[in-house]
Automatic annotation (TrEMBL):
It comes from the Bacteria. Pfam families: ABC_tran. It comes from Extibacter muris. The keyword Coiled coil does not apply. Keywords: ATP-binding, Nucleotide-binding, Transport. This is ABC transporter ATP-binding protein. InterPro entries: AAA+_ATPase, ABC_transporter-like_ATP-bd, ABC_transporter-like_CS, P-loop_NTPase. Residues 3-229 form the ABC transporter domain. Belongs to the ABC transporter superfamily.
Length: 231
């Protein structure tokens, strides 16, 4: 299980959003930290194959990001995920499962299993427009897991969650990260300091820090703020 980013670069007009990023990722939770505009979304969209890099490659166990085989291993929750407000959580998952090629029976079984995982079983037959922000995010994670992905990409998944929802969310991610590669982006240090096995920090399109973060390394928030002090 190895995801390799090799010298990824992406430029918009005269702005370099991702600047020669190389990384080797294995099983575990990666917390991608960076201020607004650091390039997190651009990088994640490249890893998902939604956006093509100007140069560089993304491969998973040797399979290129542009291939169907790669996509089959990928789960993605974008920043602005479009839900269908009049669908129930269950209908939505079954619909998304059909789009991903599951049969009706598979879809039903998987939807039930995932609703359980994200603690939405009781709300499964409620319309999404009645869901709280946290419930929607959990449903978003569930849809990203429909194809049993080995790579799970979550773009700012904790935005707008209350503290209780954050804890619940962390527990779900920690569980998934035991067996898979999970990359989640945020600009909130406390979202990742307790669950990320590896901290990645981006600034101006570059990776300025990568590594484990433990108590003895000091205060992550302090370190993070220091990187942005001159701004
Ligand atoms: N489609 C685009 N056209 C032009 N510039 C863009 C485009 N998308 C992103 N950018 C610029 O590229 C840089 C990186 O943006 P990106 O969205 O990847 O950052 P981010 O770290 O995800 O920020 P945020 O947390 O605000 O989403 C920013 O300066 C942004 O303005």
């Amino acid at each position: 299980m190895e995801l390799i980013l090799d010298r990824l670069t992406k430029q918009y007009h005269n702005k370099i959003a991702v600047d020669c990023i190389s990384l080797n990722l294995h099983k575990g939770v990666y917390g991608l930290l960076g201020a607004n505009g650091a390039g997190k979304t651009t990088l994640m969209r490249i890893i998902c194959g939604v956006l093509k890099a100007d140069s560089g490659t993304v491969t998973y166990d040797g399979v290129d990001v542009s291939s169907e085989a790669y996509r089959a291993k990928l789960g993605y929750l974008p920043q602005d995920f479009g839900y269908y407000p009049d669908f129930t959580g269950m209908d939505f998952l079954i619909y998304m499962a059909a789009l991903k090629g599951l049969t009706k029976i598979q879809a039903k079984r998987k939807a039930n299993e995932l609703l359980e995982l994200v603690s939405l079983k009781e709300e499964a037959h409620k319309k999404i427009k009645k869901y709280s922000g946290g419930m929607k995010q959990r449903l978003g994670i569930a849809q990203a897991l429909l194809n049993n992905p080995q790579i799970l990409i979550l773009d700012e998944p904790t935005a707008g969650l209350d503290p209780k929802e954050r804890v619940r969310f962390r527990n779900i991610i920690a569980k998934i990260g035991k067996e898979n590669i999970v990359i989640l982006s945020t600009h909130i240090v406390s979202d990742i300091e307790h669950i990320a096995d590896t901290v990645l920090m981006m600034k101006d399109g570059r990776l300025i820090y990568q590594g484990k973060w433990q108590e003895k390394s000091g205060d992550l928030e302090e370190f993070y703020l220091k990187q942005f002090e001159e701004d």
